[in-house]
Amino acid sequence: MAEDLSMAIAQLKRDEVADAVETRAQKGEDPLLILKECRRGMTIVGDRFQKGEYFLAELMLSAEIFKGAIAILEPYLAESRPSKPLGKVVLATLKGDIHDLGKNIVATLLEAQGFEVHDLGVDVPPSLVVEKVKEVKPEFVGFSALITTVFASMKEAADMLEEAGLRSQFKLMVGGGIANAMVKEYINADFHTTDAMEGVAYCMKSTGGK
Predict the structure, then answer these.
(1) For the chain, what is the largest distance between any 2 Cα atoms, rounded to a whole number of angstroms?
(2) pLDDT digit string (tens) for 19-40?
(3) Crossing angle for the helix pair 14-26 and 31-50, nearest 10 degrees?
(4) Which of 36, 69, 90, 94 is the most exposed place for a label (fewest CB within 10 A)?
(5) Domain that holds residue 177
(6) Could you tell me if 108 and 195 lie in one domain?
């Protein structure tokens, strides 16, 4: 059944995905496992896009299908969260980039694990990140990056956080299709990944979770 759900997403079967997610959640299956199966389907979509088998239209449709699955699962995920958050996370796709699918997946997975997530959205000015960090005092700040035009904004935000005396108070993460060791070093981040689950695992490990 897990493979069926993953493949339904990969094959862009919107109604079939929604029905399967709703039915399984109502039967009491672990919503986090259902979510992970949906994410596996998104990974397949991403692989097909990279190979040229899928194009932007298919990528956008898969994102809408995934968001629909999240909306169905949200009430069930909320019931399974611990009453006290494991930690606070500020996420943003900074100015120069408007892609948010990866960031949205990370946000959902983190919330499902019990983190309090503050998602600032896309095309976010660095100053807004600084303001939010001052406000919520997070343990983690995550920058999402899919295109190189966002590098300058990420660097500016990191520098502003340093100048404000905030940088030592949290772990800085960078994720997305172009996240690599060079980008990590460029903005002096603590962690980088191209995989949403690795980002969640890093936060869990850093807070003592499993």
Answers:
(1) 51
(2) 999 999 999 999 989 988 998 9
(3) 160
(4) 36
(5) 88-206
(6) yes
